[in-house]
Amino acid sequence: MNKPLKISTVIHAMVILSIITIAGCRQGGRGEGRKADQESISGADAELYEDLKQAEKIFYSLPSPLESAMLIKSAGAQFDDDLLNPVENANNYTTNRTMALNLGIYTCDLSFASLYDQTQLIINYMSAAKKMADGLGILDAISDEDIERLESNIHDRDVIMEIVSQTYLNSNSYLDENGQPAIAAIVLTGAWIEGLFISTQLVDQKDLDGNKLVGRIIDQKLSIDNLVSLLGENQGHPAVDELIIQVGRIRTIFDKITLTATPVTTEFDQESNVTLLKSEVSSDLTPEVFNQLASTVAEIRNNLIK
Amino acid sequence: MNILKSITAAGFLILAIGINLSGQCKTFARNTCLPMLGEYTHDGNYHATVLMEGEEAELFKTFYSDMEYRMAIRGDETLPPVEFTVMDANRNIVYSNKDNSLSGVWDFKLESSQQLKVVIRVGTAGSSGTTPAKGCVAIMFGFRVK
Fold first, then answer.
1. Interface contact B103, partner A, CB < 8 A
2. What is the interface size between A and B, counted as CB pairs within 8 Å?
3. Cβ separation B45–A169 shorter than 8 A
4. Most C-beta atoms within 10 A of its C-beta, which of A142, A193, A302, B7?
5. In this complex, do B49 and A56 lie within 8 Å of one another by their Cβ atoms?
6. Contact assignment for A264 to B49 by CB distance below 8 Å
7. Chain A neighbors of B117, CB-CB under 8 A
């Protein structure tokens, strides 16, 4: 008696599933991504984005918090815990927007503390990041076992970096694969802005010429198009739309810096099996533009941690 | 009433398919691609997707002059080998794994920071009349200070 009803339900389900799938493909397909790209890409890297034609999937990768912290450290900058978002603020973040932004921000602060062997801060910032991840419902991004392992290896920087990397991977992959790419993009944006904030604040503005950290900051001009494209893919989410405006302000300042690069040539070292990409790059950053960048990034970042 | 049941059933079906595919790629990336980074520190970023034979994915990323990088790319064992090409900002090819026995790993460093584009293409098995294979492809980056 019930059998015909079940079969018809399944047929209905399949028809509805097909309609939803086709509609979904049309709404979120490559055409839309390409339109966002065309609107957002400009400057020297525009050529690189021109042939977005066949790809089924396009990834816009940003420097991760760990990579940003490593760039700051390798530039010879000193640690300054006053620049970090205080862990006490974690209690203030109760919306998905603020928790996602500050998951990125706290993970960047955690990475920064990790590379400078700030043992107590590492534990505090891991707990703050866990609070954000738990609040977002990211299952097991940072487990109690991760925190215990961190505590028992607190003097082993390699293990700490591995745990930080793993927890960031857990968060990103969970959000990306559970239909929350907009939240994933917000986390990545929070981390990128925090890295840029810390770097710009650590620069002695009287010493811009030949400053290695300034070089790393200028390099972010190359990443900002990736960030704009990543956010563009998630346009329509209110928090993302607001970030597009704020990141646009930073991009306007980066647009005032001209990067000139010689063509890339390669040299393969058979002994180490490593390929060297050779090219020279110069830029025309002025102290005025650097001041604008530092103050705009600080204003945006300080609003994000409120 | 029937329509309501149908919508519910469709919803569960979509959820089940989505979770099944996504769960595969996350686990695949962690278990098979991540170990390819060896002694390099994984940056923590996640890039994995489901591709069919002949399909392509592209990745844009800035690489920094202070670092030495390892790029690791791996496709599911049900897929034909994965080819990848790396281009500079002027679309000049700086590396292709076709010149290196389709190796899934490339180690490199840079004199100056560069925005690079990686084009990943799943090869085709070449047998006509069969359903093209489909599976996860993961791309991961490790770094260490020069």
1. no
2. 214
3. yes
4. A142
5. yes
6. no
7. 48
Backbone angles phi, psi at A279, to 5 degrees: -170, 150
Of B43, B73, B106, B122, which to mutate for an interface test with A (greatest number of A Cβ within 10 Å)? B43
Query: Which of A21, A47, A63 minimises the CB distance to B89?
Result: A47
**Element at A147 (helix H, strand E):** helix A144-152
- How far the first Cα of chain B sits from its last, in Å, is 66
Q: Do the Cβ atoms of A13 and B13 come within 8 Å?
A: yes
Q: Which of residues 42-101 of B touch A (CB under 8 A)?
A: 42-49, 51-52, 55-62, 64-68, 87-92, 94-95
Which residue, among B127, B145, B140, has the nearest Cα to B38 in the 3D structure? B140
Q: Contacts of residue B48 in chain A, CB cutoff 8 Å?
A: 173
> What region does B44 belong to: left with phi over 0, alpha with psi -120 to 50, or beta?
left
* Tens digits of pLDDT across chain A (306 residues): 344 445 455 555 555 544 444 333 333 333 334 444 433 444 445 555 555 456 889 999 999 999 999 999 999 999 999 999 999 999 999 999 999 999 999 999 999 999 999 999 999 999 999 999 999 999 889 999 999 999 999 999 999 999 999 999 999 999 998 999 999 999 999 999 999 999 999 998 888 888 999 999 999 999 999 999 999 999 999 999 999 999 999 999 999 999 999 999 999 999 999 999 999 999 999 999 999 999 999 999 999 999
How far from A220 is each of A70, A130, A206, A214, B79, CA to CA, in Å?
14, 28, 21, 10, 36
Inter-chain CB proximity A56 and B56 less than 8 Å: yes
Q: What domains are defined for chain B?
A: 2-145 (2.60.120.380)
Of residues A166, A225, A162, A170, the one with CA closest to residue A192: A225
Reduced to 3 states, what is the DSSP secondary structure of residue B95? Answer: strand
